[in-house]
Amino acid sequence: MVDYQELGLKVGLEIHQQLDTNKLFCSCPSEMVDEIGKELVRFLRPTASELGEVDKAALMEARKGLHFKYQCPQKSSCLVEMDEEPPQGPDPNAMELALKMAMMVNASVVDEVHFMRKIVIDGSNTSGFQRTGLIATDGELVIDGNRIGISPICLEEDAGRKVESKGKEKTYRLDRLGIPLIELATGPDIKTPEEAKHVAQYIGGLLRATRSVKRGIGTIREDVNISIAEGARVEIKGVQELKMLPTYIENEVERQLMLIEKMRSLKDREAKVSGKVYHLTDLFKECSSKIVKSSLKNGKGVYGIKLKGFNGTLRGEEGKALLGPELAAYAKTAGVGGIFHSDELPAYGIESVECEAVVNELDMEGEDAFVLVVDEEKRAKDALEQVKIRAILAMKGVPEETRNAVEDGSTVFLRPISGGARMYPETDIPPYPINPGYLEGLELPETPDEKIKRFKKEYGLNKQQSGQLFRKGYDLLFEDMMKEGIDPSIASNMLLHTYPELSKEGYEPDDLLDEVVKEVLTRVKNGEFAKEGIPKVLGLILEGNSVDESISKAGLEVVDDHEVRNVIKTIIENRKDFVQERGMGAMGPLMGVVMKEFRGKVDGKKLSGILKEEIEKWCS
Ligand SMILES: [Zn+2]
After folding, report:
1. Residue among 249, 194, 256 nearest 229 (CA)
2. Going by C-beta distance under 8 Å and a sequence separation of 6 or more, which residues neighbour residue 407?
């Protein structure tokens, strides 16, 4: 067990939630579409005058010499998204929602919202910047008894959606550009991986309660800031699955601990990164590696550097990733495919004879390591410069950086953490005054705590059940079901027990549409089949059947009461000695037999009622 308290773990979340209103600065609908529409190509050239002091992150991106292709679907983009017409707005509904959210987290709302331009360097915005407005500051929530600061709260536009990245061309679709996003940042007040999940669930519930936010994968994205006392702040961007939050945090803590440990051993060894880049192509003339052979044929070369004292720090036992991937990620920013290093060689067709030749040429000793890049001279040398930068950082510990979340819970280096102050006033949108009277008149949804209490009281659920319905995000669906007169225990049992069971069997119950699930439970309510048949019916629906087909395929046509009674009478008749001997004590054993006969077809309560009546008749 890792003691996060002792490590001084600090986590802060930045939550971006898409709003279900029109776009923020035009009247296009906030809809993702399959349509590609008209395409246009633009080049991005960040100039010193635009950026003031050109920061390192901007430089890094610019060096790659990318150009951008934009798909402009007619249905959900217009001249505003193409940056050929000034923005309008902001959308009043989006504004209202952001203000409600600010009030719900007890924040101080600004007197006037000023939209600002934030420089965007990855091409995801046609204008080269993202517009963002500060709505409120200094909010706070108490979650699981801990105070979590919430600040700032902003309203901003979503970026274009990346659909393809091919060589030097990145393609974005503009359907997502301009969708309003509410951005809430927590302070670094979260102390454990699990707490991060709870906080995200809680804030997600607040947003959902407004009933004006988008639902489903990709509509809420979390950036996570993580640091431990001896480490540094690392930002992980784009976590889409809430349940994965703890995994990202655990993995990042482990990575920082690894970096700290390597820093110590590099210090002990008096490690050094020398400046010289060696041209090693001649040593690889006879190399049997396919990649090396074809590279040399195309006029590329093999270049290398020595890392004094780095032996064994790049890759550990059983291929455990250590500093190797960190160096490779920096090298890739120069446009190369990757690196080879001495902890992993011989491999990939590079043999020990070549490795020994490199060791000789670089005049290496026992604790030294080498890194090779196979590419055109300029690119290879740029890549090795980056490797050197990262290796020097490794001797200092954990560098501050921004990393991208990968679905499996790992992360990859994106860029050094970018400077905060890159905001310029948005002159096309006038300041938006907030009238205090207007704020007071806003109707706020109930808080999660109030809701959990009310569920308990109104629907007879226990605290755990109502809490789980909320945390798993089923509270709205549950409430809608209650409005349609569905039995609360049947509904909560389905959401909290049947769903996880279906997941275990490989189904994706969260793919079920709310309307379909409501329909199924309404059929149960109307007596079309018994609640015991719900798992089977949901399974069949998830396999692609309609509700009607599923009920009939599950063999759940209702059995009428008369028939049920007859079958029960026969069961008792066949065991009359047993019933005479045990009296009402026969109830339990016989119930098992009856259930076997009718499971899923007849409600268990009804069965036990009839069985009890029939046994009583026998005993009297
Ligand atoms: Zn538009």
Report:
1. 256
2. 241, 244
Query: DSSP character for 494?
Result: I
Place of tokens 């890049």: 373
Rounded CA gap, 325 and 559, in Å? Answer: 64
CA distance readout (Å), 43 to 12, 152, 313, 514: 35, 33, 40, 44
What is the Cα–Cα distance from 524 to 510, expressed in whole angstroms?
A: 20
The pLDDT > 70 percentage for the chain reads 95
CATH of domain 272-394: 3.30.1360.30
Q: How far is the CA of 77 from the centre of ligand 1 (A)?
A: 4
Helices 587-598 and 604-619: angle between axes, nearest 10 degrees: 140
Going from N- to C-terminal start, the domains of the chain cover 4-266, 272-394, 472-553, 561-619
**Distance (Å, whole) CA 378 – CA 326:** 21
Q: Which amino acid is at 136?
A: A
Distance (angstroms) between ligand 1 centre and the Cα of 36 equals 15
Distance (angstroms) between ligand 1 centre and the Cα of 439 equals 28
Alpha-carbon span 63 to 65, nearest angstrom: 5
User: In this predicted model, what pLDDT tens digit does every residue of 588-607 receive, in sequence order?
Assistant: 888 888 888 777 677 788 88
Cα(16)–Cα(204) distance, integer angstroms: 10
The tokens for 82 are: 């193409």
Residue with tokens 């008149």, as numbered in its chain = 441
What's the pLDDT tens digit per position in 305-356? 999 999 999 998 888 889 999 999 999 999 899 999 999 999 999 999 999 9
Q: What is the residue whose two structure tokens read 């720090």?
A: 313
Pair of tokens at residue 578: 């047993």
Q: How far is the CA of 41 from the centre of ligand 1 (A)?
A: 18
Q: Is the peptide bond before 152 cis (omega within 30 degrees of 0)?
A: yes
For residue 75, the CA-to-ligand 1 centroid distance in Å is 9
Distances (CA, A) of 266 to 32, 46, 321: 50, 38, 17
Q: Any idea what DSSP says for residue 309? A: T
- Distance CA(458)–CA(440), nearest Å, equals 29
